[in-house]
């Protein structure tokens, strides 16, 4: 077929990758029934591949033709993680990363789609298909994830402790969709395991009120780029001073050595429908958000579920929240798991650094 248009306005030339095993296993059906009709109706040219195994999308992205207008990923966050890591290995990585990525939610964890389209539309494949046609490219920070001599990309989250366990221990429950994370949290609350780490970070901000002010300042200044989803009513600037400690930090390394229930770090407010883990995250502020849950009782953890989907737990005093340019973590327990973008990695020392505005998404 002839390609009539290229580069920008629809119709577009799209590379579509589908993970038929994502979430409840309906990704192909979702694509054929809800997404492809919209793309074809708009005159798009599509080249579609279903992945056949874990790691397949890394290979496909690594050799991707630079002529595509967008990469449409029909899956959960796991396949997007693979695509980002494939692009990083491309012979022309910067050009490869400038092909905008558009997620179509079809996994159990669809954090990226929620961050682009919000709670209303983020789990709707049709809304995501329309975003492919009508959205604009948006630069985002990615994170460099170093473990031993391996360097990889993380685009969303790194977790240890309860927030990691709730993901890995419910992988066999993919058929539940994102309810598996709620079930996993309840299990984690009952288990109530503490996690010891050597943790240090290059902190630029530790005062929650100032973080909220900075977020709103960025949102109102168009020059600073597009925001993720609009702020929830829970995250508004206010005059109450929240504990954060003395003045600004100089960005030097700061240690945090207390035992914790979990550490979660990353970019983008949502990690799932039921949890806005990083409510003050901005797509391209050059910073990684770090949320550390100090050890508190089970009742407290159950109460903290109330409003978690709008980021209310951000304000809890026992939730220590930092913005940093880098951090390093060394788990001290023999057993455990490190989850990066919902994928399992060895429970060993790692470092995260921000790759400012390396990635490109399609955003409304
Ligand atoms: P979910 O949100 O349910 O976790 P993801 O899209 O994140 O769904 O994918 C989960 C995992 O499936 C990823 O680790 C990915 O490597 C793996 N995967 C991709 N394609 C296939 C396939 N064809 N068969 C089995 N696993 C696959
Ligand atoms: Mg996943």
From TrEMBL:
One record GO biological process: sphingosine biosynthetic process
GO MF terms, alphabetically ordered: lipid kinase activity; phosphotransferase activity, alcohol group as acceptor
Name the record gives this protein: DAGKc domain-containing protein
Domain DAGKc: 9-149
GO cellular component: cytoplasm; membrane
